[in-house]
Amino acid sequence: MINRPPTLTARILAVIPCLNEAEHIESIVTEFLSEANHLNLGIVVADGGSTDHSRQIVNRLARHDPRVVLMDNPMRIQAAGINAAVRRYGKEAQFLLRIDAHANYPDHYCEDLLKVQARTQADSVVVSMRTEGRTCFQRAAAAAQNSILGNGGSTHRNHTGGRWVDHGHHALITIDAFRAVGGYDETFSHNEDAELDARLTDQGFHIYLTGETYVTYYPRESATALLWQYFNLGRAAA
Question: Does the residue 139 lie in any domain?
Fold first, then answer.
């Protein structure tokens, strides 16, 4: 019998905030169910009132696999949905895995994060974000967002090696650290990850940016949607 590192047997709560993600939600849940076959991982989709077929898709997946749960998020914003999922389903979990429905992840994403955490003992392991596009508009937006001009030289947009940081794209965090700082601030509709990282570092927790895995993000599919997203980001940062 092969003994597995203790971190790889830890209970992981994966939370996917969702609002009208019918195009992506089945593939993202299925992808992480494949990891759940060799990790102790449960998946909560925190739905903010989708009006497309997202809820029906998740309900169908949940009927066939008890590791998937659809949870209502009446406040709609991501911060509130993740906090509620931790309160309701995180009692026995040691780690919180935050997943974007509007993204793509490499194979063994969660396992790689757990290995990094075991090696570094970081309270939070964050990743670099690479932006890609499928349509002409998305590819143009991705090129801009990946450039120094578009991202301002942000470490988690440009860094490929491992180092300790103040902020990065959220991936894996210990439940203890998440609870110790009170979770996400639910007054933030956007930028809640940067705000949480500020409280983590202020309270002595450590954030490690790994270069061993990453997330691929797909921009909004129209100029109007993209401008609205950035308007909200700017308003939250103000």
Answer: yes
Tens of pLDDT, residues 26-66 = 999 999 999 999 999 999 999 999 999 999 999 999 999 99
Q: Write out pLDDT tens, residues 73-131.
A: 999 999 999 999 999 999 999 999 999 998 899 999 999 999 999 999 999 999 998 76
CA pair distance 58, 41, nearest whole angstrom: 17
124: CATH:
3.90.550.10
Within a domain: 145: yes
The alpha carbon torsion through 159, 165, 171, 175 (nearest 10 deg) reads 170
pTM: 0.82
| Angstrom distance (rounded) from CA 183 to CA 83 | 6
The tokens of 153 are what?
A: 């030289």
What does the block give as tokens for 184? 């996400």
Dihedrals φ, ψ of 171, to 5°? Answer: -135, -75
pLDDT of residue 8: 78
**Full residue range of the structural domain in which residue 77 is found:** 8-237
User: Does 2 fall in a domain?
Assistant: no
Decide if 3 is inside a domain. no
Split into its structural domains, the chain has a count of 1
CB contact set of 33 (below 8 Å; sequence gap of 6+): 43, 61, 65, 67, 68
The C-alpha atoms of residue 156 and residue 127 are separated, in whole angstroms, by 6
